[in-house]
Design goal:
Elements (H helix, E strand, L loop, with lengths): L3 H28 L16 E14 L16 E8 L2 E6 L5 E4 L3 E7 L1 E2 L2 E2 L5 E9 L5 E10 L5 H12 L13
Antiparallel strand pairs: 1-2, 1-9, 2-3, 3-4, 5-8, 6-7, 8-9
């Protein structure tokens, strides 16, 4: 009987803590609600350029690596597979629905050391920079952070994403032989 009151106080405090965590996560999802959901699949599935095992870390507003965006398909951190195709990037993260980033929305690729939930060695994360369409018809620049499972594939992944963002333009210059 003498332990009953402290036990009830601890249970009440734990309940309040869980309620606060739920409220904070709901508020974060509400702040992200003005953004449209990423497409569940590419409208035209192109030729596969490469498939990579990754740890998906987070998606944040551009240049704000400590401010998570809660989007369906990109909400939670997890292991997954990223496939780069000629029409965009397919993301299949464990526990999330498949998601796609279309080619015209990709802005580029870079490296980073930190983001929300993750700090690694210098240039240990790959940042895919892209534009997310909003409900108002505008686009909002966002960054998605990945850690490549096989480090030797990092440069190839970044190169493929960069090629989608900045396709090679046919050369219009001619070289004159002398």
């Amino acid at each position: 009987m003498e332990n009953l009151i402290p036990t009830l106080i601890i249970i009440a405090l734990l309940g309040a803590l869980f309620a606060l965590m739920w409220w904070a996560w709901s508020a974060r999802k509400k702040r992200s609600s003005h953004l449209l959901q990423p497409l569940s699949e590419l409208t035209v599935l192109g030729e596969s350029l490469g498939q990579f095992d990754v740890l998906y870390v987070s998606t944040t507003p551009a240049d704000q690596p400590l401010e998570r965006i809660a989007l369906p398909g990109l909400t939670f951190r997890g292991h997954g597979v990223v496939e780069v195709t000629t029409t965009g990037i397919m993301l299949d993260i464990a526990g999330e629905r498949s998601t796609a980033i279309e080619k015209q929305d990709i802005r580029g690729a870079d490296t980073a050391q930190t983001t929300i939930d993750k700090a690694v060695e210098r240039d240990g994360l790959i940042v895919v920079q892209w534009n997310l369409r909003t409900t108002s018809g505008d686009s909002s620049p966002v960054d998605s952070y990945f850690r490549i499972t096989h480090p030797e594939e990092k440069l190839r992944f970044m190169s493929l994403v960069s090629e989608l963002a900045y396709p090679q333009q046919p050369s219009t210059t001619t070289i004159k032989e002398t």
